[in-house]
Amino acid sequence: MNKVVKGEGYLMFDDFLHQDELLAIQLYLQFENYFLVHSQGWSKSWRMNDGEPLASMSYMYSLLTEKTTLNDNVILQGIHILSVKISTISARLRDFLGADWNAFSLTTFLYPAGSGLGWHEDDGQYKGAYIFYAHPQWKPDWGGELFITHQSVNPSAGLPEQIYQASEEVLRMSGITGGAVGPEFGWTLRERNIFDDGIGTFISPKPNRLVIVKPEYSHCIKKVDVSAGDNPRCSIAGFFHIN
Ligand SMILES: O=C(O)CCC(=O)C(=O)O
Ligand SMILES: [Fe+2]
Fold it and tell me: Which of 219, 234, 236 to mutate to test the pocket of ligand 1 (most atoms within 8 A of CB)?
């Protein structure tokens, strides 16, 4: 680890894994199983035009047991390398995010050219998120940047503005009382917040970079450019929570 940057809403570590650990995880990731994120129907974390990213199963790491598990089976290799490494900086992460988490998830995502992830905040039930970039190389023109706003927003800001002004009766009739994703008819509080401020940070998905994002900061992945060719944007991402 040779560079740490702390910004508005994020904390970033470069050269996070040793070179041999990175190679081992890259080898493992090529043999991982992936499915299309929409294979079970529309997963609304992604907008209609966000393309077709792939995801692995979600693993869990507990600070209490110090084990990575998949459906209660203990994993000792591959993705466990990252669990252990993140756990070594847990004091620092608790300092940044607050101390009330003791576990985190780990899911691998492959974003092929043309895919991305629209503006969102991570689910308010989590204490924060991390993303680790695992592809062997990334060029500045390949897109896929992580953008983060400078201005925090109330989580669950994804409903249209007129819904927040609507009567209780409208909400009762719809059966919907909250939520951060969907087709978003009209301007949402999130969009207004991002656009009013209109400024933020971009973080390139540099290989071996770990980024921590606070829950109340809107962020997105800009679509991977065609110039990335057949190099997918490969990340391991997860959320910090109480087990
Ligand atoms: O991959 C990234 O850079 C961000 C991913 C993200 O925001 C998410 O999965 O919620
Ligand atoms: Fe996110």
Answer: 219
* C-beta separation of 144 from 131 below 8 A: no
Within a domain: residue 9?
yes
Per-residue pLDDT reduced to its tens digit, 21-47: 999 999 999 999 999 999 999 888 899
- Residue 231's domain is classified under what CATH number? 2.60.120.620
Assigned domain for 86 exists: yes
Looking at the whole model, is its pTM more than 0.90? yes
Tokens matching residue 24:
């081992």
Query: What beta strand segments (E) does the chain contain?
Result: 3-7, 10-14, 35-36, 54-62, 67-70, 73-75, 103-111, 117-120, 128-133, 146-149, 200-203, 210-213, 219-221, 233-241
ipTM value for the complex: 0.99
Type of residue at 93: L
| Residue 161 counted as domain residue | no
Does 29 fall in a domain?
yes
What is the domain count for the chain?
1
- CA angle, corner 146, sides to 144 and 152, nearest 5? 155
SS3 27: helix
Q: Report the pocket of ligand 1 as residue ranges, CB < 6 Å.
A: 117, 122, 129, 131, 146, 219, 221, 235, 237
- Separation of alpha carbons 73 and 46, rounded Å: 29
pLDDT tens digits, residue range 87-116? 999 999 999 999 899 999 999 999 999 999
* Distance from the alpha carbon of residue 71 to the mean position of ligand 1, in angstroms: 23
